[in-house]
């Protein structure tokens, strides 16, 4: 396990102000899960959607809400990991909400990693055409990214997150104490989104990770900085009409790897490879300097994330990338980097260029031609 230092002694509240939609805060600190009762007090019912790994925490939350907030709380358990983001599991949750009799005055609570907050958000967005959701992320990845900003959804056979809705939460509670049980491999996966945030916006993040690539020495600060960037981007463009697309840096290839791997790769691992590819594409297409491009591979390797993938999977990856939400007609679109903190759209690059960029992550190519 990676030890979690708690340098953020005080609770930090980071505002998300999505224009036209209800404003909310991301609350970050040790023990902030204790605020949940106050947040949902006055509701009749609450449904706590959680993964197997969070069963004990969910049971404690349910008991606390019943005893201290006079809320009829119920736990709904879903599978661990990406297997939660399936239509079948959403259906299981809708059936459970039906049995509970959850009304529009009641609330869904998403307790777990990004797979659970994505699922719970989608269930809340669709149940009765929309009920409130409070997100309680328990992984680094969910705190810095998935639980913030209202993107919710599930996967289909065709690809990642292809069904979903924008549904902003009532509040996001990031309790640093929950991270003490998080395996190191999951911390590393979360650091991939942290690195993404460093390259697209806040360069201090990259320096902090250079200082300690395990993330342990600066974890609360890394989480806070990443949330601030996400909150800022989402506040300006909650429904991805434009600028929000920058949060997809590394995701076009990353999501394709997840699909080709049958959703068996961690999200952070897949977008780590995706960022090395995106950096190389940026070098070739928009003149990103070689040192910044190389910094991707160096930093991500030192964090302990993968930076290479199989050459023979290129045709399948290209097919998978065509259903990416950024695609327009036959044109693939990528988020590129002109310099650290300066994103650009790489619109409709030709396949030859994509293959050249892919060579940066495929040590032995094979099975595909230029
Ligand atoms: N909606 C968004 O904006 C957004 C942003 C980024 C990622 N995502 C999505 O998030 C998902 C990845 O999230 P993730 O990395 O959190 O994965 P995850 O939800 O699969 O969690 C990782 C593993 O850790 C376990 N776990 C969770 N909290 C724990 C804790 N405190 N202690 C011990 N074990 C714990 C989980 O049960 C799971 O097995 C992907 O589906 C990705 O597409 C969504
Ligand atoms: O919040 C966003 O916007 C993002 O793109 C954040 C990503 O890290 C995240 O993985 C998101 O789920 C990707 O969304 P998608 O629209 O590409 O499915
Ligand atoms: Zn992501």
UniProtKB/TrEMBL annotation:
UniProt GO MF annotations: 3-dehydroquinate synthase activity; metal ion binding; nucleotide binding
CDD domains given in the database record: DHQS (cd08195)
Example of a GO cellular component annotation carried by this entry: cytoplasm
Record-linked HAMAP family: DHQ_synthase
3-dehydroquinate synthase C-terminal domain boundaries: 190-327
Pathway(s) it belongs to: Metabolic intermediate biosynthesis; chorismate biosynthesis; chorismate from D-erythrose 4-phosphate and phosphoenolpyruvate: step 2/7
Keyword Cytoplasm tagged: yes
Obligatory cofactor(s): Co(2+); Zn(2+); NAD(+)
Name this protein carries in UniProt: 3-dehydroquinate synthase
Record organism: Frankia canadensis
Subcellular location, principal: cytoplasm
Superkingdom of the source species: Bacteria
Task performed by this protein: Catalyzes the conversion of 3-deoxy-D-arabino-heptulosonate 7-phosphate (DAHP) to dehydroquinate (DHQ).
